[in-house]
Amino acid sequence: MMPNKILTLLFFVVSISYGFSQDYRHTTEGIDKVEVIASVSVIIKTHEAPSLLISSKENKQIERNTSGLTPIFGKDNTGFKVFVEQNNSTLKIESFQPRTDAPLIIYLPETIKLAVESREQNNIKISGFTNEIEAKTNQGDITIQNANGPVIIENEQGNTYVKFKELNQNSPNSIVNSHGDIYITIPSNTKATIEVSVPRGELYTDLELIAPENQDNKYRYRRDSRYIKSLLNGGGVSVVFIASRGNVYLRI
What's the pTM? Predict the structure, then answer.
């Protein structure tokens, strides 16, 4: 047998023995929004291609002895224990990986709207998107980098970190933490109407917060209220921060 044929045969045998995974791609042409539900930590990054990408190089799965067995919960049409389905202009991505698996890492165009939910005790990381972002987790940290807004976050137990590149003036923002701290960075020239509620915590900031004319300045600093409403750079889009049992750190 020729040497190159031998190598081809060996490669084929190794692929069968150990599993050979390929990248998964799905076009985002005509897609307005992507919804992600996962049982593992989720990392979502941007790329220039008009597609969803799940890379075999970055998504390494833990091998388990499941030969001949079929999972009861969930379908897999990607090769990564992930099910992808298009419903009109929405692309739905659902992960059925065990929650102890490595994070699910996916790539999408930066202009896509995102709605991401972690249903287990895991984290969400999103970076570089210029459109609307929704994120929800039961227990875990949420980190969003270089956001334009609007940003809507519900975090039951964990810290939230959001760095705004700029603040879209067309839609309001809401970041709510039940148990955990909120860390926010915004550009110094941002126009916003900021409301902060920390019933059992504190607000720390390096911003010059100015109360609206119809609000009593004394009320703004009352410790029993733990509430502030302020106009930043004359006011603008609504930004609400609520840390029910935690602090808010707001900086430029």
Answer: 0.83
